Amino acid sequence: MEARTPPRYAAFFPSARHQLLRIAPSPFEYFKDPVKTAEAQSPDGTLSTVGDVGYVDEDGYVYLTDRRTFMIISGGVNIYPQECENLLITHPEVADAAVFGVPNEDLGEEVKAWCSPLAM
Fold first, then answer.
1. H or E element in which residue 39 lies
2. Which of 22, 63, 95, 97 could join 88 via S-S bond, C-beta 3.0 to 4.6 A?
3. What are 37-62's pLDDT values in tens digits?
C-alpha cells in the first residue's frame, strides 16, 4: 500500500499525496459503473483506491485520516460510515473503528468495518 502518488500517476491523482493506493491483485470494477471504476484506477489498472485518505508511517503502519466520500451506496440504500463507526465504538471492547465500502458484484458496494480492540 502506498500513501503517495508515484510520479507517473501524479496527473491521475492530483491530490493523492495522502490518497491511499493499493496494487490491484485482481481486476477491480464497480457494478455497472464504468465511470466510477475508471475514476478509482490508474490508467494502466495497476493501482486502485476506494477513497481512503491517510498515510503509511516509517514502520509500515497505515493510518486512515479521512475519506473522499462520506456515503456508501449498497443496493440503493445510503449508508453513512460515520454513523456505523459511532455505534461500533460504543461497544465496551472497541477502542476505534473504521467503516468503509468495498465493491460488491450484486449491490454495487458493501459495508466493511475494521475495529481496534480496547485491550489486547
1. helix 34-39
2. 97
3. 888 887 877 787 767 777 777 777 77
Residues 10 and 58 placed together within one structural domain of the fold: yes
Residue finishing a domain among 41, 68, 95: 68
Same domain, 7 and 62: yes
Closest alpha carbon to 67 in 52, 49, 50: 52
**In this structure, are 1 and 56 located in the same domain?**
yes
Q: Which domain holds residue 50?
A: 1-68
> What's this model's pTM, rounded to 2 decimal places?
0.52
HSE-up of residue 41 (Cα within 13 Å, Cβ side): 17
Rounded-to-integer distance, Cα 63 and Cα 69, Å: 17
